[in-house]
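Protocol step 4 of 6: structure prediction from sequence.
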Amino acid sequence: MDLIYWLMLLKAPHLGVRTFYKALEVFETPEQVFLASKPMRKESGLFKQATLDFIEKHDLSVIQADLDWVKAQNCHILTLIDDAYPEQLKTIADPPPILYVRGNVECLSMSQLAIVGSRNPTPAGKQNAHQFAGALSKLGLVITSGMASGIDASAHIGALEADRPTIAVCGTGLDRIYPAKHKSLAHQISTKGALVSEFSIGTSPIANNFPRRNRIISGLSLGTLVVEASIKSGTMITAKLAAEQGREVFSIPSSIHNPLSQGCHQLIKQGAKLVENIDDVIDELTLGFTPLIQVDKTLISTKYVDNTPTVLLKYMSYETMTVDEMVEKSGLSPQIVIQELLLLELANRVTKVSGSGYLLTK
């Protein structure tokens, strides 16, 4: 019965999270808001007339979709006062009063690291997200992200392939998968970890929902690792929120010619921890996290070590180069360049990205 009042109050028009908490300060519980007299609600000065009318009408049909959804297997609705509500999230300035969860509720209270970045990353960016997520998952961190295309998806997949749980915070109701192409990924996440949202069942992917979603990603986590980001992006909003919440902010540097490095480099200038390997992350989380196994710095690193016997490597970088450019820089014949590129591809040292373009892998 208590859940019904929480759901009803949050459905009221013109009533956001801050007004919700102000109402609790005055009335103590959502139930008391509905049980209070009309004059008392009006005299509180908290509610607009449309809100007062909604509360007075008390129409349960507006939450019926939520009540039906929570009856399904592995579907949960947590209020702020539930024992399963993650303590880490409670510490932010405006924690969501309600969390909709599909999957394993227990993983919400595990030590988490957010990995976020561009929806259109470079191949190297996707690889970094995937490898860091996998390696850090094996150490016991739950990887949390937003299930967006690009870096987010690569991070979730990296954790899943390491056979570890991962959490996706959604900007829609959990009956909607966004983007739609991630339906299979969402199923895997909810089976191994959890899908989370503060938005009621039936909520569409509205643009304004995603910045709100971002505060939950950072709020659940001990820190946020930014892989690739432009200056003006949702990723930078998440990093800003993490800093405001007192969380650690980590950033992976890249080429100065990569437009998606600009956000990462700006964060480093502002005090974010520059990350080259997983030890750079673990070192900053010692107060809130104990690794399951001893950290091995060689487990994953963005540094490149040349141990392949080929002349061509010294002329390559993490920026795309064509065969013609490599011929010009190295002085080798086109036949030799193509031959060595084939050997490097077989050794997983370079990646072909488009046409005749290649770049280094790790």
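Step 5 (inspection) to follow. The first strand starts at residue 75 and ends at 79.
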